[in-house]
Design brief:
Blueprint lengths: L15 H13 L3 E4 L6 H12 L3 E5 L4 E2 L3 E2 L1 H16 L16 H15 L3 H16 L4 H7 L2 H8 L4 E6 L14 H9 L5 E7 L2 H9 L10 E4 L5 H14 L6 H11 L3 H14 L2 H7 L4 H11 L4 H12 L3 E2 L8 H13 L3 E5 L2 E4 L2 H8 L2
Parallel strand pairs: 1-6, 1-7, 2-5, 5-6
Antiparallel strand pairs: 3-4, 8-10, 9-10
Helix pairs in contact: 1-2, 3-4, 3-5, 3-7, 4-5, 10-11, 10-12, 12-13, 15-16, 15-17
């Protein structure tokens, strides 16, 4: 089946230019950021680039460690970082290591790794780091000092095995919430990363405003540190070509008029193009598939999961903007100007809304507009 909704793909459609650029930059050691809204295919581009680079890599999503609206499980993040770095480079030691089972806790992964690392790597700094992280992590103690040591781990192992490694952190902006554990987290990361010669760093994020603040504000440690690649939605013709090829591959006849309707409705977002393609193939009618899309369980789950990260004020402003067709000015979004501006600020930071021109704001993802406009 051509259309796939949900998991990232290692062969994203029409992203060859982005992939080849990213591979070249990673191999050359240039820090890179991939920036774009949700469901645009950033993770697929990143995954495909990592696979095709033929370099050992770590891919970790900071979003996986969020707790509630602004909490962050730093102990698990640090444990995941250390264990993934070791697992990615461990094969070069000449020793095989396989986790016995799928585990829910990265602290447990570290404990399982400890014995093997002592034998295969024989690097006191590595086994010592694991032991301290385990001890402090299991007791709920502060790990800020160990974080600084963990950031040195990729360079240490890459130098030992004379190889380059890629560290990729998806949804990087959510490390902002780890400041409760490490107040100067980005300063610490920059201070270690900038001197490493064998590690390539890639970050990506969908909360465009938050990521822009991290990379473009002069008072931020990562100011002008990354080469930025903007990932945009497909243009109309690419969207239609994707749909044509998909329906043709799957042996489903869909008219050019209906293909145009789908492309116009979802506006170049690969995730939604895939979902509509699946629905059309299952239900057989384009009109039915499109009209039912805002009520589809997959759409509800995806968008409600995103909305839960927003404050009540931001959700209210977003809903009102959707009722206006996805575009509007602050005066149309509520009587309390201060409250509206506060909501818009969060929506821009989280990548839901962009400012088109002076005083005009637009919802970036058309499916959010379709979804909220009928509720």
């Amino acid at each position: 089946m051509w259309f796939t909704y949900g998991p990232p793909t290692e062969n994203p459609f029409d992203r060859d230019e982005e992939i080849s650029t990213l591979i070249k930059l990673m191999r050359g050691g240039q820090p890179v950021s991939l920036v774009g809204p949700r469901r645009i295919g950033k993770t697929s581009i990143l995954l495909a680039s990592l696979k095709k680079s033929n370099l050992p890599y770590v891919l970790i999503s900071a979003e996986d460690f969020l707790k509630g609206e602004k909490g962050f499980n730093f102990t698990e993040f640090l444990s995941a970082y250390v264990s993934k770095v070791i697992l990615s480079l461990h094969p070069f030691s000449g020793y095989a290591f396989k986790l016995e089972e799928k585990v829910k806790s990265y602290l447990k992964v570290l404990r399982d790794l400890l014995g093997a690392v002592k034998i295969s790597l024989n690097i006191p700094e590595v086994s010592g780091l694991i032991e301290v992280v385990l001890d402090k992590g299991e007791k709920g103690k502060d790990l800020s000092e160990e974080f600084s040591r963990a950031l040195e781990l990729p360079e240490l192992l890459a130098e030992k095995f004379n190889i380059r490694i890629v560290i990729a952190i998806d949804e990087f902006q959510y490390l902002n919430f780890a400041k409760q554990a490490v107040p100067e987290i980005f300063h610490v990361m920059r201070s270690k990363w900038q001197f490493q010669k064998r590690v390539s760093y890639v970050i990506s994020g969908s909360a465009v405003g938050m990521l822009k603040e991290i990379m473009s504000s002069k008072n931020q440690p990562f100011y002008q540190y990354f080469y930025s690649i903007r990932v945009n939605p497909f243009n109309r013709e690419t969207s239609k070509e994707f749909l044509r090829k998909g329906f043709e591959t799957d042996g489903v006849k869909v008219s050019e008029e209906d293909i145009e309707k789908i492309a116009e409705y979802v506006d170049g977002f690969p995730a939604w193009l895939n979902l509509v393609g699946i629905k059309v193939e299952l239900e057989g009618e384009v009109e039915k598939a499109l009209s039912s899309l805002p009520f589809d369980d997959n759409v509800i789950s995806a968008i409600e999961g995103d909305l839960n990260k927003l404050s009540p004020t931001a959700r209210s402003v977003l809903r009102k903007l959707a009722k206006l067709g996805g575009t509007g000015s602050p005066k149309d979004l509520g009587e309390n100007e201060w409250s509206v501006q506060r909501g818009l600020k969060q929506l821009i930071r989280y990548g839901y809304v962009e400012r088109e021109e002076r005083g005009i704001y637009k919802i970036i993802d058309p499916m959010v507009t379709h979804y909220l406009s009928v509720r």
